Each structure stands twice: as C-alpha cells, then as structure tokens.
C-alpha cells in the first residue's frame, strides 16, 4: 500500500534530540527553540516567532492576543480544518462562515465585506494547500473596518504572496509542523507576531500567564501570574527535531516540487480532456507543493476513484466537511448557502505526496488514475 503520507527524517533529528537531552535542559525555550526562532526570523524576516506545541495552540494564542470575547464575530472560510474555528469558539466567538472562491478553495475576499457587522473583530484566512489568499484586498478591508487578520498558514511554509512570506502579512500568523506538513516535528507549530503591539503579551501568554521572560532578562526580581495563558511552548526535544528539519528545508521543498511537477505532467492529458480539474494557483502566489489535489466532475466519480485507488494499493483521501454543515456547528449556523465550499468537499481528491515517494510510484499512481478514467 502506498500511504497518503510518510514522515521524512532528514538524518540529524536523533542526534539533535540526544544533544538536547545531554545538555540537561529539556523543557521549553532553550537553545534549540532559539535556533528555530532565529532560523525563521533570518530566512523570512519575521518580526517575532514563538514555537508552540501545535498550530492549534498558535491559533489559540492568537485568539487570546486579539482579545476575543463572548459574542465577538470572526469571519473565516467554512472550507478549513476545525482548528481554525475551535480556537475562536473556545473564547466565545460567533463564527461567520464565508464561502470559498470558485477557482480555488481559499476564502472569497469579495464576500467578506458584506459579512462585517459592528461586532466583527477579526478575519481568519487559510492559505489552503499553501496557496496565498488575496492578502492586499483582505488587509485593506481589515484596515478600513479596524479588524485583525490572523493567517492560518498551517500548510503554507515557504510560500509567498507577491514576494512576501505567508504568515508574515496579517497581524498574526500560525504554522503547523504536524507530521503531515512539509516540515515536521510530530506535533508542533509556531505563532508569528507581525504586529509588535502583541509582542510583550505574547511572551506572557506563552509562559502560562507569567512574566518569566522579564525575570530571566533581569527586569523583575521574581516572576508571577500577570495575565491569562497556558503551556503553549514545546519542549527542547521537539525543537531539536524541528531544527534538523529546518536545516533541510530547501532540500525538502525542492523534492516536493519535483514530485508535484511530475504528477502535473503525468496527469496533464486528463486535465486537457476535462476529466479532472487541476488546482489553480493564482499569479500572486507561489506553490510550496504541500498538496497535490484535483477535482473530479462530481461526488460520485470522486468516491469511485477513491475506492479504485485503494483497491489498487494507493491511499488517497479527501477533506474537508465544510464546518458550517458539521455535526457540531450545524444547529448554530445561519443557513446561508456556501456553494463553493460544499462543492470542493464533494469533488476534491488528494493523492500521496511525501519526500520519499519515488518517481516510479508517482508513475504508478498516475497510471492508475488514467486507467480509471479510460472507462469513464
Ligand atoms: C494542519 C492544520 C491545522 C492544525 O495544525 P496542528 O499543528 O495539527 O494543530 C490547522 N489548520 C489547517 C488549515 C491545517 O492544515
């Protein structure tokens, strides 16, 4: 069976973990955490980074930082992972779901403004498949209405909008290093603080609501409880693993792009004949080869193809159930029709894409897909 994903070890993960363990400091915010922060600040020019134990945690920190309170409204796409939503629901927000664009699954920026009310506090954008949302338009809307923008950049490492790294454009950005992402640490994430007004409070929330950072910097004599917070920082063991991955980021990205392009070439005839629809990448976005997905003509064909692939030893998958129609949110939803979100969830199919996937396997997967469509 070809799995959907296989975590890739670059080689130095165990060595760095051993180094962290032997150093005698394995709780958070040590040498490897600093190395990871420095890496991102240097490579992407991010203002301030804080590693977290997941992207979910980074999103939860973002919700606390922008001070989401009971009844505040946040606008976000329905076509996303639950964490984008949960973080804000946990703080009492009312979710206002927006539809996806009709050419790719990101939030339709033109649908945002009419969803704004006096209670709106933030716009959450999700760079699905590492493809950028139309950030100039979104930031302009946010500035005009004095709203915060949080980027769920879980899938968007090393991807750019008009030359600017994703995660570095909104007030706050959130990354994931879950084992299914391009760069991994098992579970793991990172919050990017682009708006310096949040910097000091971010350190406090990160360290369980204490002013431990000021204490270590010698600014206060003892540290104490000064705000709400949680245990958002990962241990040095996780940071050590992540650092080994970061040292190989360019190699990983190059390989993933090669695999992406190979799929593209192999399946181009199906796209040309209209059997499948390739993903659209707008000219203002780069492609970070996080996912290779395409759309089938309808749900029936998509499900048949999934079964056919599994029968042939290929584990392909689909997602997301639009959040507005989920079991949890269904009853709370205002019943507006979000047709593009629903349409993607019915027609999307994602095929295996991971570092160790061989060209022979990509050929086999593509051949199997083409064979399926011969009879269609
Ligand atoms: C993976 C993912 C998350 C969650 O990341 P974790 O690190 O697993 O918490 C959130 N949003 C999106 C869009 C994702 O793809």
Mind explaining what this structure looks like?
The chain is of the alpha/beta class and 376 residues long. 37% of the residues lie in helices and 13% in strands. The chain is built from 12 helices and 12 strands. The chain has helices at residues 13-22, 31-44, 55-65, 82-89, 135-145, 199-206, 212-216, 236-246, 249-272, 299-311, 339-347, 359-374; strands spanning 49-52, 73-77, 94-98, 120-126, 148-152, 160-161, 164-165, 172-176, 189-193, 277-278, 292-295, 348-351. The strands form 3 sheets. Strands 1-9-8-5-4-2-3 form a 7-stranded mixed β-sheet, sandwiched between helices. A 3-stranded antiparallel β-sheet has the order 10-11-12. Strands 6-7 form a two-stranded antiparallel ribbon. The longest helix is centred in the C-terminal third of the chain and has 24 residues, at 249-272. It is globular and about 75 Å long. 46% of the residues are buried. The mean pLDDT is 97. It binds pyridoxal-5'-phosphate. Pyridoxal-5'-phosphate binds at residues 54-56, 80-81, 83-84, 126, 152, 154-155, 176, 178, 189.
